[in-house]
Structures are given as structure tokens and as C-alpha cells.
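Next comes this protein:
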Amino acid sequence: MPSERLPHIVLTDFFESSSYTSTSSVVLDKTPAYRNRMTHGQYLQRKFDQAWSESEQERVVAHSARDGVYLEFISDPDAELVTKSLEEMRSKQVRLLNIREVKSFIENCNGEKEELVTTYATVYVGDAQKKYFAKKIEDYLTKSSPSGNPCNQLLINSIAEIRKALLVDSFWVDSPGLVPDSDSEWVEVWLSSDSDKVVSTFDVLLAELQIEARKGFIRFPERIVKVIYANHSQLEMLSLYSDHIAEYRRAKSTAAFYMEMDNAEQSSWVAELLGRTSFAESSMSAVCILDTGVNNGHPLIKPVLSDDDCQAVDGAWGTGDHHRHGTLMAGVSAYGDLGKILSADGLVQVSHCLESVKIIPPPPEQNAPNLWGYITSEAVSLAEIQAPHRKRSICMAVAADDTRDRGRPSSWSAMLDQLAASKDAKKLIILCAGNTTANILEAAKQYPDIQLTDSIHDPAQSWNSITIGAYTCLDQLTDPELSGYFPVASKNTLSPYTTTSMTWEENKWPIKPELVLEGGNLAIDDAGFATDCDDLSILSTWHKPFERNFHPFAMTSAAAAQLACMSGQLRAIYPEYWEETVRALLVHSAEWPEALKRQFIEKDSKTAYKRLLSICGYGVPSLERALYSTKNELTLISQAEIQPYDKKINGSGYRTKDMHVYELPWPKQTLIDLPYDTKIQMRVTLSYFIEPGPGEVGWKDRYRYASHALRFELNSPGESREEFEKRINKDARDADEGKPGSKSPTDHWLLGSQARDRGSIHSDIWQGTAQDLATSNLIGITPTIGWWRERSHLGKWNSKTRYSLIVSITTPDETVDVYTPVAIDVGVPIASEIST
């Protein structure tokens, strides 16, 4: 209710920092096979010498001036390859370039097929460092560790085979069927260095080989990405003549998500709406739309999008909307669902403005493969240069037209992660999950199975972005021409248009989508004919207002635009909130409608909820909850900075550094005084941005894509601060002290750490009695391993990172006041209730 709106309570310096060492240790997923020392060591010596000789001969025949060789190290099927030891970081002359997994099948004794995975690692070895691997094998044969095992046993036993790298296949990390043949294709080349010298040398090589290249490149730590137009033999030549090839991948083409339906022009609606709408002057909150351009001549768009804020990556494209999608995005990003706004009669306040940067050119080049991360980066830069003072939410509902990544980072998604984490100006990025690749008939007839097996589109696997899928509330058909039709999806269930991350590798990639919003529905008749329609779509602005002002809008684009509108309003009211905080509040506010939850959960369990997260994330966000606390729903916010890693005291190696422990201000007495067994919910959300390390080399070892990771821990009911800190932190224990007897509050969490600890935002719901919650107010923020620590030669080991922690308490009885006692305790003036 509006009369109950209260500002969230922001905590300042409510934590204590202490040194931290994790209580867990990293172990190999699979133990390398047992080897006979002499037989295996001598075999690898021969294979290494043979591979080196073949590579040298290859260079001689091709008159290559390359200064090293490419080797491939191979594991046994279904065994671990110790890839971490396949590089020497100080000299940069032994570089691990990529890691690939190849699946095969064997028939077991029961006649069943078993899947086996073999790991291939491509490594560059400079000529001067030939001794690096030769010595490791020699030491394995001749030297023993203090425990009596062969030196380098873990590494050498994990290697089944060594061979000369294949000139294309050893670098091709995309689907094998996408390797170019004699016909040229657009290909991403990932170079194994981020230096300007390397990219300029590579450009010279491209010119010598007469290979066409797209404008620009993307720079990541230890990687530069370019897009070239090459066939198989040209890729072989690049591998022969360059010392810096790390990966090849097929470049992406794009598909914006459009729909086209008739809708009568209603100019009088526009005039009526404008008459009751107020617009903020010089708003500091903006939604920046990266799309096909926007027609800001539309009377509803003109007040929120100035000519100066309409731009294009290429000036020759013009800034207008050549294909309707950008203007559809703009209408919803400014107002939300115009159908709801027009049918109401209250005052409307638009507190944010719009920006448009055209990133898709007019035909015929619209879907051409390109370096889309570079184009996106250029677009964001244009908006920032035009209005550097604004707090902007970047909304992009343009995505690749295939789903082959299945959670794996791409140059595009990694570029978005890099933009979000930028030190100069962090960014809030909102992406659509992408629509099912099936046609309407298939999407309707095979609902919801086809939605569960159709993967989210690149770049929506981005860790730092908010990815939006779709559900639907629209289930009423009023069009007489659709007599005999019925909605495919029931109210408050999954939209037939959406995609999910159900097919992604379990536990490896982030929770996607994080949120779902209205994405529309389909109608189907008894004969099995399916159609989209006005009744089952939301309403937005049309790019040709002289033809009609409004047009139906659906799919995940429409869902993303609604979230962008929420974000614009949130940032206008709370300009002091960090991007990490705004993202956290939107996720924190979300709930699963009961129908959506029961569509995919038969029985409550952590496993069932983990599956639900892969389908619809944390559910449907609420702008009301994101904006305001109430007397019976208290929200606490902390924005803080932590240094995850540091050098070890003796200077040898690196370690985790800081842990933050919050002793939260708590309505303890209010909770204790509630009737016994009163059920209470607490929600905790932790949000931070990682810096990407996107090469394929990082995907075998999960610590190499994310620069760092943070986790939250809660004390169990009745667990003291001393017991809590000793349970989660080795540094809090005496030298000879073991783990204390207290236990983690695992049973109280709805999701649990296995489900929530993926990506760079973690949210979970604590459930229990008010009396249990009264003593559960200690939260620890701890770091885990990332490439800032593991790749210390990059000089990021002492970097700090921002994070936002949000904690809410919700009581079922609206008359219970948990807000006021905390506000008094913190010293926050009891605010007048907010009325909007």
C-alpha cells in the first residue's frame, strides 16, 4: 500500500574486516590413472621429441619465422588433465592457449552406451623453453619427492599423449561442424596476448596473406579478438606463421526479436495519456537502448528522447528506426506496458529519460557476422561521451541467431562483463534471454518441453548483466476471429516464446535468466494451428506514427524493456545506489508466482528449486519491493569494498585476504515476542561484478574466467560470533584447533549454496521461526579463488572489488513492525512514509 512506503535502511561501516583462509580445499574432479614410472616417462619422452621434431620440420617446409612450436597434450578418456601445470607464466614462453573436451561413447558390459570425455590442451612453447617440458619428464623419471613419489607425478600421470598441434583443429573451440572448408567464413581469431605490438604484427600478417578483417578488435586480459574472413587453408597459414594463435571460433550473426501485427491507430489515446503524464526535466537516470534506432518523432517518445541522445555506431546508418524494433523497445522502456497505462486513469510520472544508439545497420548487412562485442562497446562509449553525468541502464534485446554457446563465455558476452566491471564507470546492463528458435507451431505444440531444451542466446550468458526471460499472465482471448482458440500457456506460467539454461553444463555457468517478465502468449486451436495475437501481447509504440501509434509487442525483448523501465525508475529515486545494488534490488524483489513454481516443481526440494532457477531464475520482480520497505518488510543495504587476495606473508605465492563480518542491527525483541513457531522469511542477496578472462583456457578451470568470487555465510540459530567465525575461517582458529562443533544453517535455506553460488549474484531465502531468526544476524562475506590470484603475473592480485549486500526480513502479519526498532538502533530518523 502506498501509505506504508518507507525508504530502505542503508548501513554504513557495519562490518568488521579480518584476515581470511578458507576451510575447504580444491581437489581434482577425477584422479589421474596409475602409471608405471619408467614405461610412461620414457613413452612421453619419445612423444615429446617426435612432436617437437615434426613441428620444426613443418616450419622449415613453410619457411615460417615463428619462434616456437604448438603442442597438444591429451588426457586419458574420462580422466583429469592437470592443465594448471602446462604453462610457465614468468617467461610467457610456455603459454596454455585453449582447453577442449571431446566426447566419445563406449558400450559397457550391459550393452549400454557410456559417455567418455577426453581433454585436449594446446600449448605454445618458445624455442628457448624446449627444456621446460623435457626437464619435467626427466625429473619424473629420475627424481623423487620427500614422500617418495616421482617428481611431477600428478602432471605427468595425467598426460596420456603428446603430439604436434593440428593447424586448425587444435585451435578450433567451436562446434566442429562450423570449421570453414574451401569457402571462406567469418571467424573470430583469439590471439594469446593483449599487447598492441601483437595485434599490429597480426594485422600485417593478414595483409600479407590477403585475408579480409572486420574493423576493430576486443582486448581482454591475455587475449585480443579479431574477426576475419578466411577459409580452412588460410587458417592453417595463420597457425603456421603466427606465434600468437590461441583459438578460432565461428563469428556470430544476429537476429533482433520482432513481431508484426495490425493495431488501429488511436491518436486520441496518445493525447489523453500525454495530458496526465509528467516528465522529469534533465533526468539523471537514463535507459540506453542499443537496437535498430528509435523514431523519437513519435509523440510519446519525443518528451523522453532528445535528438542529441539519438546516435549510431556508424553515422552513415542514420539514427532513425529502420525496422520498428528499437521504437517498440523505447515505448515499453519509457512507460512499461502501454496497454495498462492507457486503460488506467491515474497520473503517470516518467522519472527517467531514454537514449538510443543504433547498432544494427539497415539491410542488407543487418545479420552479417561481426565483432559484436566491439560494436556494443563503441555504442556504449558514444552514450557516455554524449551525457557522462547520467546513471544509465543499458538495455539490449539484440542477440545471436544461434544457441551453440550454452553458457560458455563468448567474445560478446565477455565484452559486456568487461563493460559492466569497468573501473572508470561501472554499468548496469539488461539483456533479453532470446526467443525459442522453433517456429510458432512447434513452440505451441511442444510447449513447454521445447522451451526447456532451447538455450538462451549469446550474449545473455554474460555474468554481470541481468538476463530477462519471459512468463505470461495473458490468457484471455476476446478477438471473435479467434473463436475456438485457447491460450497455450496458463496464467502465470512460462511464456511459449522464452528460452532457458536447462541444457547448460550443471554447476558451471551462472543462473540464467535471473528474472522473467511478461513476454506474451500464443493461441492454438483443436486442429493444432497456432498463432500470435493482440490479446496475448503487451502494447508499445510504433515506429511510423503517421500509420499508427501503437503496436503489439511480445517475446523476451518486451520482457527486457519492462525491466529496463523498472531500472530507470529505481535509479531516478536512488541515484546514490551502485550498479551492483540496483541489480541486487531487482533480483531481491523477485518471487515465483505459485502457478509458475508448480509448473516445474512437484515436490519442494533443493534439487527441484535448482532446476527451477535454470528455467525462470528468481521469478518475477516487483518494483514496489525494489523501491520501498514497509513496517513488516524491512530491507537493509550495505555497499562496501573488499580486497579478496594478497601476497603470502613470506612472499611466496598468494592467498585469500579479507573477510567481512556483519553483526546486523536486528529487531531481536520484536521477533522473540512473536507467538512461538511464527514462520518468518529472511532473504539475502550478494551482488558484485567480475572481470572476465574469457579464453577457452578458462572454461576447464572455473577459476580462470572470473577474476574473483565472493560468498555469504550466515550463523546458525544460537551460534555465537566466535563459533561462527571459527566455523567459516581457518584464520580465526588457534594453530592446533580444529573445526568447531557448530553447524551451517543448511536446512533453513530454500536453495542452498549448491544452487545459489553460481555467477556473480547470489540470492537465497531463509525460512524458520521468529525465535530462530532472532539470533541469526551474523553474515560473513568471504572470497574464493579467481584469476586475480591464480594469474598473479597480471598484476591484479591486490585489486579491490565492490559488492552490495541486501538483507530483508518479512513477517506474515502486516501489523508487526520490524522496521522501526532497527531504524532507531541504527540512528536513522524515522522517515515519513513515502507517497508517490
